[in-house]
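Step 1: inspect the first sequence and its tokens.
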Amino acid sequence: MHFLIIKLYVFMKPKYLLKIIVASIAVALIAGCRQVLDTPSYGFYNESEILKTETDANGLLLGAYSEMTKRNWNLFHNCYWIVIDFDNDHVVGPNWAMGTIGSGAFQGFWGMDRVWSGLFSIVNRCNQVLEKVPAMSIDETVKNNVLGEAQALRAWAYFTLVRMYGELPLRPKSMEADPAVKVPRSPIGEVYKFIVSDLKTAIPKLLPKGHPKGGGVGRLNKPAAHAILAHVYLTMASGNQKGISISVRGGKETDNTAKKYTQSGVAGYETFDSQEYFKKSRAASDSIIKGNSGGSFDLAPYPDVFSKAQINGTEALWYLQFKAGTDVINNMSLWYNTTDPKLGYGGWVWVSNNFYDSFEETDLRALKGIKHQFIADGPAPYFYPQRDAAKYAWTWNDMPARYLNRAFLTKYFDVSNSALQETDGSFFLERFANVLLMFAEAENEVNGPTAAAYDALNRVRRRSKASEAPPAMTQEEFRSFVLEERGKELAQECTRKFDLLRRDIYLQVMNAIAIDQENNVKSRSKKHLLYPIPQSDIDASNKAVVQNPGW
């Protein structure tokens, strides 16, 4: 089955008896598992009496995973994808939905602080695993895998944090082991050193995909950690490219021409050797492509890759799966889907006309991956899948329906019950298409647009029946083409803003739009390169943690 009943372990300081607050909660376990952890309830025991079995070790680890999926609004239940995905050049929605994060008023969003706290909760729970599990007398293979998962998950949390907030307080120990609050922010280079070290230490411990002693489907494994490492290296490499050019299509609603921008480099990334890290990203991606990372992967048919039935298919490296009827749910379908007649509302996030118009006529990511909605006469919604049907739809007064034409991506449509506000849509964190595009980008930066770079890029395009990438592109043209392809392939998967940031073109791209088609403010200033740190954490640190500039 695809969910787990787990126990959450919360530790007090070692000198006291340990009180375990046992909460039987259904968690998605990052896509769930094929087994149910059925551990007995615990009362007041010390650690040596409780942490004895493989089930106990896994239960402790699942407490870290649960921070990503539980119904507390912090991360993937709601706030994570709003904070990250509502702030890019492709997303559109009404002002009431986009008036805070989507318009640059980050501190105006009620859930802004929850992403910081949720990610650091993952860090703390991973630290608990790394402190408690080594002393357990359990199967060494299982033990090492649990420890590897904890390190890889901690690395992912810090990787997300450093891209959002820049310099960070590094906490290699849990709050129980080291309750110090005056922990200053470490330089970005030190944070990445910590992330890379965690991943490189975790990978040898982690088991291959499908190993019987592994954590099960959806949990971190060896190839998933390789994918995260490739992503980390790619970010480090591209963040310190200076003087290179890249073109992005977009701007005002009626302007979809390509505009050339020049990278100056991301602040804090100056010490990274760009070529060295592109080579490392290429190697990590290539190991997955060639099946040398602990699993065999391929592209799934489009759009089956996003269906509930196929979510754990050949393309999946790491994903979140939720369970309808439990507290492990999200409301992505409510926001990203068209208005559901059974629910009567929803459908608040769609893609811009410029983005939609960038797809070729034959591209399945437009033909099957986008669904239109318009209001023809009165409140009744009408739906159709045809690419340009809205151009031929007319209302009672012979006005074209374009003014209410909305292009919704269908990635989060397949849920158990679309009439519910919160349901069980799945979410990819790393998938094989991203690996291919990371390889294509890194190969181009190292060797230019080689046959290998073209092959990786065209594998993604062939799957969606788009035309082959133009032959004989220059390195700059290929770089720009890959960035655009990433935007199309990974839309609404919380990657676009991070891509613009690491390429040092976020401000330029957003300011070229200024005001979007729904009259939301897209103009941004330097303060928007980083998110604001919660004031409560600054105060709790006795000012050891300082706020990001401009907030």
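Step 2: inspect the second sequence and its tokens, then contrast the two.
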Amino acid sequence: GILSTPYALASGGWLSLILLFAIATAAFFSGLLIQRCMDSDSNIRTYPDIGELAFGKKGRLIVSIFMYIELYLVATGFLILEGDNLQNLFPNMEFEVGQGLTIGGKQGFIIIVSLIILPTVWLDNLSLLSYVSASGVLASGITLGSIIWTGAFEGIGFQQKGTLVNWDGMLTAISLYAFCYCAHPVFPTLYTSMKKKHQFSNVLVVCFILCTITYASTAIFGYLMFGPQIQSLVTLNLPASKISSKVAIYTTLVNPITKYALMVTPIVNAIKTRFPCCYNPGFLTIFIGTNLLISTVFVALAIPFFGSLMSLVGALLSITASVILPCLCYLKISGIYRRFNGQLVGICLIIIVGVCLVIFGTYASVLDIIGNL
């Protein structure tokens, strides 16, 4: 998400930053609602559990569908990101496969990266990868620092003025901002793992403040450096010959490789539950993980547009899973929908605005993808 915030800002203009803070506030509030839902029943362990408590088996199914599709497309986005950044480092690379068959650099890099990732999706124990991927906060800081360094000391500067507002790209901006706050499905798991659960809201405040500052800073500096010429990933604008640029690019290359398996493992585990227990669990992990990886490669090759795809994820899935569903589940579980008060009005307004953004944002994203094909 952090790499696409400058593109989001360029799409919507400077005033779209207000919407970044508005989305952050709504996402923070919905995170608190998830906590309240979990406090109502000690048996809740996962996000689908909240959906089931609120709306029964259908609620569990709906929450699961949105959660797993989001994870799947985020994993696909990782492959596109890798292909884009490697092509930026090696712009003239092509791959010859057999006689007369040539694969473009980006497509070839996506396939190569998928082969590197393949062994990680065979693992049942992802504890090592989880420690590596936990360095994501550090990686974000390194990326932001490298971008600022490139602008300040590598001759690019912060001279671009940008546009105050661009209504044509506002839906794209909103969708990409929403994609930055798509972690809500993991909140229940984090909450249950905490020893001092009463501190969850404080942790949430700190995390949202730090993340929002990082997102806004990256967006502002990237937009000031490259203006309307900013690409869907800010690293694609960085001069690949500069050391600071290479630091940013290499940092963004490592993270997706370690996080891919963490994204698809919940999907693998969900599919495994549909098979009889007589099947070998290790074989199922390898079989399902491999086929999931192959399918994401095909999607990444068919729709190799990171900004457009993540805009679709943000509009259709992130807003739904991170804002609308927590509000709906809380209304049902708490029962406050039975009495009219300020909280009910506020939550209903969030739901209505969220639904409108899902409809129009998804429409704009799909049109953008079709236009790029």
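Step 3: confirm your contrast with the notes below.
DSSP finds 13 helices and two strands in the chain. The mean pLDDT is 84.
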